[in-house]
Structure formats: C-alpha cells, structure tokens
C-alpha cells in the first residue's frame, strides 16, 4: 500500500464501517500469518489454517483496494 492509500484509510475509515472492518481484518490476518510463518515446523492443521488465512487476507485486501480506488477517483 502506498502513502496515499494509507492517508485515504485514515481519512475515511472512521466514517466508513466497511472500510474500517476490512482494514482491521487485514491487520489481524497479517499478524496471524506472520505468527504461523515464523514457526520452523507447522502441523498439517497449521498449514491448512495458514492457507485459509492467506486466502481471507487476499480477498479482504482486494475488496479494500477496490474501495480505495473508488475513493481516489471521487477525490479527483
């Protein structure tokens, strides 16, 4: 994410519940992914969880970026 997108998040997240929720979820997923990836050995269940977290993170980020792109367009 570039600085302009972060600025948009800071500006609109307090008044846009969906944007705020997507950003909070993204940060949470990122922390969970980092925690699992830092393990030197993962169980099959942890591998599955990691895969699912990455999928959810990507889906959320895609939606988040769509919203931010629309906000960029509306500001121009």
Textual characterization of the structure:
With 76 residues, this protein is mainly alpha-helical. The protein has one domain (3-75). Helix content is 83%, strand content 0%. It is built from 3 helices and no strands. The protein has helices at residues 3-12, 17-37, 44-75. α2 packs antiparallel against α3 (44-75).
Low-pLDDT sequence parts: none
Helix/strand class: mainly alpha
Helix-strand pattern:
HHH
Distance between the termini: 19 Å
Classify the beta-strand content into a percent band. Answer: under 5%
* Overall strand count: 0
Mean pLDDT: 94
Number of individual domains: 1
- Globular, elongated, flat, extended or rod-shaped: what is the shape? elongated
Radius of gyration over alpha carbons? 15 Å
Number of helices: 3
Helix content: over 70%
Main beta sheet strand tally, sense and closure: none
Helices and strands, with pairings:
Layout: H1 3-12, H2 17-37, H3 44-75
Helix pairs in contact: 2-3
Structural key phrases:
mainly alpha; 76 residues
Write a compact overview of the structure shown.
By secondary structure, this protein is an all-alpha fold.
């Amino acid at each position: 994410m570039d600085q302009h997108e972060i600025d948009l998040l800071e500006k609109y997240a307090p008044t846009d519940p969906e944007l705020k929720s997507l950003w909070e979820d993204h940060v949470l997923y990122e922390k969970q992914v980092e925690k699992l990836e830092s393990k030197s050995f993962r169980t099959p269940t942890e591998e599955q969880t990691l895969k699912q977290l990455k999928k959810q993170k990507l889906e959320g980020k895609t939606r988040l970026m769509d919203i931010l792109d629309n906000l960029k367009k509306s500001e121009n």
